[in-house]
Amino acid sequence: MSRYAQQALLLAALLAFSAASLAAERPEVIQLNQRLAALQMDPDQAEAAAFEKLQAQQAIGVLVKARSRDRDGALYIAQRRVEIAETAVRTQLARREVNRLDRTRSELLVEASRREAERARQEAERLRVQAQIQAEDAERLRMEAEAELLARQDVEQALSKVTGQQTARLSAARQKEAQLARQEAELMSGAKLPASRFDNRGEVFTLAADTFEAGSATLSAAGQSRVSALAAYLQAVPKAKARVEGYGDAQTPGQRRADAIREALAAAGVGKARIQAVAKGDGSRARAAEVLVIQ
Question: What are the residue boundaries of the OmpA-like domain, all occurrences included (predicted)?
């Protein structure tokens, strides 16, 4: 039995013991321990993402020892750490699959030298690209989970100083709702939403200068795609309102850009009563307009 397998069995046993000892009072700890133990019991996953699993186990340990007033925050961090460990395992397994498929590609290339060389190379390339996409998707999910964890920690800490724990939980719930609405909008529109950030007003989407045709307020093809995704996003959160802020340049006033986006959103099915269009200062290559979504 390998050293990693022995460690996996030991950790699984410890997790099981921990879960049993806490069964009477801490079901959430049991659930987290069971999820972590599941990663160790699967032979394919036992040796993957050891560091992330350790971080998750440490976070569960902090949760177990947390005082009542700190328990919600500790539970949130422990849940995120377990999610990150699960995603990291999937990422490493995907990377192994990439390596396996790369070896398959090499074998196919050898066979291609004997028979139907061109067809075999095309199939190998298709497999490589498919595996690469899977690995990139898994890595993106891991990075998003890590970024979400860090962002929510910052938001919760800031809000807890101002309005207390209840306001922090409400803000986190709204951001989760926004994330789900973002995913729904991108699926429905088939387009990628612009980058966004949260401030004390709401969620702010920034549209770069290539959203418009050069020297005009006419939406470019990329701009139409972004506005289509924004329209789907606003339809996914029907209670939200939008404030479009246009930034101008030497040829195009900011108000014209804001009005163009407002008209495009309305044409895509968003009620005009929900959209306000205003002009701001001078724009830049990175920022020609911003859409503030207020819930």
Answer: 201-295
